[in-house]
Amino acid sequence: MASQTPTLPELWLSIDEWKLDWGPESRWLKAFNESLCKACKKGLANTDCFFKECEIHACKGHCLLCHLQQNASNMHGLQQDYQLETYLQIFDLLEVILAEVKFFEVKLDEYAPAVPYSKVSDARYYSGM
């Protein structure tokens, strides 16, 4: 059974619940660093858990983006005024989600890159010498 696409009001609520309460975007870096420091002080397991939670948060953000895309693609047959209002709402939501997802993706890549900085190729690693 295929899951039903959430309505725009349902997405507003989901996005509001998904967003971190870190204040304006200009404070995210400080909040991230404070949270990371707290996790580090509690040990390696907590630090790993912190980064896993960051990854999960970014993945949930991607799911929300997919739901917004589905909403945008299901607007045929709506009155033009309603379509315009819906597109404007979707755009506002995109701004919120994209900023937060991008922030966490950059931080995850900075602290745990997909390809380690020391890796030169599949056959050789940079030894720092």
How would you describe the overall organization of this protein?
This protein has 4 helices and no strands. The protein is an all-alpha fold. Helix 1 (8-18) packs antiparallel against helix 3. It is elongated and about 55 Å long.
Put the structure in a nutshell.
This protein has helices at 8-18, 28-41, 44-73, 80-111.
User: Distance between termini?
Assistant: 57 Å
Mean pLDDT: 84
Low-confidence stretches: 120-129
Radius of gyration of CA atoms, rounded to a whole number: 19 Å
Major β-sheet annotation: none
Number of distinct beta strands: 0
The structural class is mainly alpha
Structural shape: elongated
Oligomer: single chain
How many H/I helices? 4
* N-to-C series of helices and strands: HHHH
Helix content: 55-70%
Residues in β-strands, percent: under 5%
Features:
single chain, mainly alpha
How are the secondary structure elements laid out?
Blueprint: H1 8-18, H2 28-41, H3 44-73, H4 80-111
